[in-house]
Amino acid sequence: MPEYVIIGNSAGGIGAVEAIREVDKEGSLAIISDEPYPAYSRPLISEYLAGETSLERMLYRSRDFYHENAVEAILGKKVVGVDVDGSFVTLSDGEKIEYGRLLVATGGVPFVPKMEGSDRHGVYTFTTLGDAERMASRLAGVRRAVVIGGGLIGISVTEALTKRGIVVTVVELKDRILNVILDEEGSRIAEEAVRRAGVTIMANSTVTQITGKPGGAPGVHSAVLANGDELPCDLVVVAIGVVPRVDAVVNSAIQRNRGIVVDRHMATSAPNVYACGDVAEAYDYVLDINRLTPIWPNAYLGGRIAGYNMTGRSAIYPGGTGMNSLNYFGLAIVSAGLVMPDGQQGYEVLTERRLEEGVYKKVILRDDVIMGFTFVNDIEKSGILSGLMRDKVDVGGFKQYLIADDFDLTSLPKALRKARLGPRPQPSAGAAPQEKARALAVD
Amino acid sequence: MKRIYPKEDVCIGCRLCEVHCVVEHSRSKDILKAFKRESPRPVPRVRVREDGPLSFAVQCRHCPEPYCVYSCLTGAMHRKPDGGVVHHDPERCVGCWTCVMVCPFGVLTRDVANHCIAPKCDLCPGRSTPACVAACPNEALVYAEEASYA
User: Fold this and answer.
1) A183 found inside a domain
2) Is residue A364 part of a domain?
3) Interface residue B35 vs chain A (CB under 8 A)
4) What are the C-alpha distances in Å from B43 to residues A61, B7, B50, B125?
5) Same domain, yes or no, for A252 and A233?
6) A421 touches B63 (CB < 8 A)
7) What ranges in chain B are assigned the alpha helix state H?
8) In A292-368, where do the E strands start and end?
9) Could you tell me the CA-to-CA distances from A416 to A282, A434, A439, B63 in Å, in that order?
10) CATH code, domain with A413
11) CB of A327 within 8 Å of any CB in chain B?
12) Which residues of B touch A54 (CB under 8 A)?
């Protein structure tokens, strides 16, 4: 029986392996994934589709990683069930694997709404290397594509297809693209860049039907919008969103909301079962609630914390929040935390525009603590704001500098600067540096 | 692990730390050749931050909890299993700027043309004292164990 079993071979699973092996070099460890590859950088599948990279260059860790860490990699097999009473998982081929401690790091699965023709040849989702490989192998002869959904995945696949010389139309349900990670002004800037690349954006629109080739030949003929307009195309990508991939645990006693609910130790309601990443509802330190924050960095860090706890070494998840760096179509946009005030009272919004340089900066504060920010083009000091936000530092004394073009560590008050740059466990500013350090490492 | 700490009260902003960082990371390790002959000239991995009379030098802090490593989408930003030094592998970097977004010191700079993070502090492997610290005329950079540094 493996001491440790991890379902999912991506950021969360690898984070857990690295933490477990920091503490326990001996305990047997198995990682199971239905994907056949070693862990790869999932966000790079758009570069793969664009023909700019290869699996070898996409590997998240070296090919020796599994051997060096004494990990049994069970790849190409799907976990179909978790029995928390018997402490075993069941694979699609019927094999049962017992566990001492289990991590569910199964990620997300694309949401494909009911739509006539969505099962046609030529209709794709775009979240795995397999998706990218399939699409890449069938691009010959494709001239026009429709991407349904103008979120991060939709825009990434749009860029890749554009680079391959395909004319793309993005169909977005809401009134603007990237509406989850950007405010209206950020979306407008992004839309300009996307349109400049020759992409058509149709906002406030929905695809209701994907028609096939006349005469029943395989393939896509067009996408039909709710208003009756028909967009002729050879390929459709459904990129509406991703939902937690809970199918392996759906019949188990593990408590779920939209995702698997975890505490600050990344522990689920079931004994010895942990969860992290896109499948988990974990702590968001900005909103002070548990919620889905499906981004790569949170998956890794959550996996790392889960890994420590799985070895018996107690560690507390400091929390994550929504946070994205957008570099498609020549853009450089970062956004973190709240992108817009959420309707509650007491927010203060600072903005700065230097239009000739294409710079836009926005910081959202509440009680002089940073709750979110968006930086366009001038992004190199944005990390300082991330640190201040993460540590809930009171920025009241210098908040006017946060959006200044020369904002830097020099803008911080001397005492705060010394605390952050001095020999303390990092990050260590503001309140209770001891507690901060302990929260991330070991308690 | 030893780290570099800046002392702003005695930094005069002379930028010798930057100069000697360039030399240390040049091919020739010769100050004249590094600045006059090498193309492209190496970029300093330590930068003096200034605001009026205030100045201090900052480079990668090699954080005990390195969010750049945790957040890196590709594995380019990494630590070796046995060490606390944060390394960057330009071969694996794609210039997504996620590390820039999370670095609490704002020390990572972009090489936009090459879609890559610019070379960052490596604590001068092979030297007992990093070049910037050794070159500082005012001991405004201190290389010390966290516990022993007062």
Assistant:
1) yes
2) yes
3) no
4) 28, 23, 18, 17
5) no
6) no
7) 16-24, 31-36, 67-71, 98-102, 131-135
8) 323-326, 333-337, 347-354, 359-366
9) 30, 15, 20, 17
10) 3.30.390.30
11) yes
12) none
Give the C-alpha separation, A441 to B3, whole Å. Answer: 19
pTM of the model: 0.95
Residue in A with minimal Cα distance to B111 = A380
Return the amino acid letter for A232.
P
Class for the domain spanning B64-120: alpha beta
Q: Check CB contact under 8 Å for B101 and A325.
A: yes
Please enumerate in sequence order all residues whose Cβ is within 8 A of that of B113, keeping only pairs 6 or more positions apart, or say none: none
Task: Supply the ipTM of this predicted assembly.
Answer: 0.97
List of chain A residues whose C-beta atoms are within 8 Å of the C-beta of residue B100: 325, 334, 379-380, 382-383
Which of A170, A144, A174, A141 minimizes the C-alpha distance to A157? A170
> pLDDT tens digits, chain A, 443 residues: what are they?
889 999 999 999 999 999 999 999 999 999 999 999 999 999 999 999 999 999 999 999 999 999 999 999 999 999 999 999 999 999 999 999 999 999 999 999 999 998 999 999 999 999 999 999 999 999 999 999 999 999 999 999 999 999 999 999 999 999 999 999 999 999 999 999 999 999 999 999 999 999 999 888 899 999 999 999 999 999 999 999 999 999 999 999 999 999 999 999 999 999 999 999 999 999 999 999 999 999 999 999 999 999 999 999 999 999 999 999 999 999 999 999 999 998 888 999 999 999 889 899 999 999 999 999 999 999 999 999 999 999 999 999 999 999 999 999 999 999 999 999 987 654 444 434 344 444 444 44
Same domain, A220 and A248: no
Range of the domain at A204: 123-240
Bond before A433 cis per omega within 30 degrees? no
Contact assessment for residue A185 and residue A192, using Cβ atoms and an 8 Å cutoff: no
Whether residue A401 is contained in a domain is answered as: yes
| SS3 of residue B106 by DSSP | coil
Q: Which two tokens stand for residue A167?
A: 């004319």
- How many Å apart are CA A285 and CA A302, to the nearest integer? 13
Q: Do B101 and A390 touch (CB under 8 A)?
A: no
Counting the structural domains of chain A, the total is 3
Are A421 and A337 contained in the same domain? yes
Give residue A287's identity as a one-letter amino acid code: L
| Closest CB from A18, A384, A425 relative to B105 | A384
Q: Which of A364, A351, A273, A352 is nearest to A321 (CA)?
A: A364
B82 at interface of A, judged by CB pairs closer than 8 A: no
Sign of CA dihedral A273, A275, A281, A283: positive
> What's the CATH code of the domain at A77?
3.50.50.60
For residues A394 and A398, what is the distance between their CA atoms, to the nearest angstrom? 9
Q: Report the amino acid identity of residue A250.
A: V
Distance from CA of B115 to the nearest CA of A (A): 10
Pick from B2, B8, B73, B146 the residue to mutate for testing the A interface (most A CBs within 10 Å).
Answer: B73
Looking at the structure, tell me whether residues A270 and A344 fall in a common domain: no
Domain ranges of chain B: 1-59+124-150, 64-120
C-alpha dihedral sign at B103, B88, A317, A376: positive
A383–B74: do the CB atoms touch at under 8 Å? Answer: no
